[in-house]
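Table S5 (text form). Sequence records supplied for joint modeling of the two-component complex.
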Amino acid sequence: MILNISMFELLFLVLTIPIGLLFVGIKRKLIARMQNRIGPPIWQPFYDVIKLFEKRESDSKANENIIFQTMPLIYLITTFSLFLFLPFPMISFHPDFILFIYIFILGGALYILLGIASNSPYGYIGSMRDMTLMLCYEIIFAIVIFTFVVFSGIQSLAEFNESWMIWNLPIASACLFIIALVETRITPFDTVEAHTEIIGSVETEFSGRSLAFFEISNGLRLAFFVFLTTLLFFGFNDLLTFSIVSLIMLFALTFCQATTCRYRMDQTFKILIVILFFAVFELIRINFIVW
Amino acid sequence: MHDFKMPIGPHHPAIDEPSCLRVSMDGNYIVDADLRLGYAHKGIEKLLEGKRIEQGLHIVDHICGICSVAHPSCYVRVIEKILNYEPTPRVNYIRTLVSELGRIQSHVFWAGFMLHEIGFETMLAYFLRDREHILGALERLTGNRVHFAIHQIRTLRNDINDDDIQFVKKKIAEVEKKIPDYLKIIEKDRVIKARLIDVGTITKRMAKKYSLVGPIARGSGVFTDVRKDDPYEAYKEVDFNIITERNGDAFARMLVRMNEILESIKIVKQVIKNIPKGEIPKFPPVIIEEGVEVGRVEAPRGENFHMIKIKDRKIDRARIRPPTFNFMSIFTKLLEGREVGDVPVILGSFDPCYACMERVVVIKDGKTEVLTEDDFKHKYV
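The corresponding structure-token record, covering 672 residues in total, follows.
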């Protein structure tokens, strides 16, 4: 495992946080324009995060819990470290792709832990829902990544050097897009964070700096999935094309949020089971082609 | 995960008015639900006691912000019954026009809010945009946007002219263009159907047993509508249908309300076409020495009932039973065995209006007393 990061890559790594927040801002603005509203300024998430850092944390009973206090930061770091594994010239970190999947699942597990530690019924239910859905979507994610890796004959996503994989692996691409919806909490699969049902879900009890970490993590998660889908579907030619395609991907995610409503918990689970079946089917199909 | 209780409200994104619903959970499913009210209690009935009749009308105007046509309309109907007075046709027609516009704005708002509960924020924004046309029309007719206050006993607060009617016509045409498109979206969207069908099902028998009224009863196949059963204002002279659905679930209620918007638009168009020329009568003082009468009108949510007893030219006792009162007895029963995700859907499909309803809690010497059904009958019937 060699860590050789150039200056440009380091710059990119530092820039991911503002890019994530900017993506959230663009998403909110786009949704507002689709809904015939003016919407907040694009810089609103930055203002929110700065304001939250200045605020004191609320005196809830959960605040005595060490997990409740420290885990948001660890969750942020875990989410941030996902960017080390993005394919193409961004960061040439060369671990096995298995490690990537483990780090990804670790992020989900920390999210569940935070919900239980927050000592709130809404947090419990959010965690419970995420726990149930994780059975499906993490497995689908692992299978889809495995499919991409097997098809291009590499051991690490960093060596990924294909383009227009969306034509070669259409079903896997569709599955990955749906997982991106589940992970970034976008309708119709935002069951974990359904705010009209369970208020803020896991984030209900968090305030001040912890909530700011959450906001940044959500931005990072959105940016990560936009970059991952863009890279795996279309490949990387130059930075300009990549940025434009990323924005188109972000638009696609936003469009999904604006035009659909939310599935109930059990319905989401059933749909994810069907998607799991499709992901496995694609993996089997690829194996016949490769071997 | 152990069993626990989860509070839904009084502050919750899914409910627009304050109520505390405590649900006991077994895992992800609801075992028992307990509805606590009393957050929006204003003491309307007590406020009315001892007031002059005109003052009473002013208070009744302010009971609710969404049924703000139904309550004064019902009050005026009761007082005119005591006076034994039949309003002139022009007054009746204008009242009908305002009633129907009020119904449209209430249903449009509800439909948007219902879709917001299941995560369809875009439809909420679109419905609110269309509601703005109706509010604009109502503002032109009455001068107000929320509490319209156009009703007066024997007459209206202000007359309308031909320009106003042309304006309303234009605005209604814009809404009429959009509503069928939305209805098509609701009928075809798979996710909406998955969330609403077979949720909160009320059979026809249950609807009759719990004496449900309005769109909820009509969603279960019960033909009930005060506009047909006991016509008032100008409803005798206009042609419209009662919309019913058989299934009795949240989706049926959605369809009933969406189709009722179209029926109301039909009524508004007829009223605009046939409105008699002339002037409305002047406003004479109302003098009633003694009398008691009951009356009902069809509010957007169902039958709205007023009983007014007058003694010495003042209101001695008022009883107001809004439609939401009937739904609350069945609400908690429907929740048992459902998921948390269904709570906003079931509650939303009832279209509750607590500001109208809350007057069953009696506060005596600082102690809260919640009346049982028998106590209630003993005291008030």
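Note: The mean pLDDT of chain A is 85.
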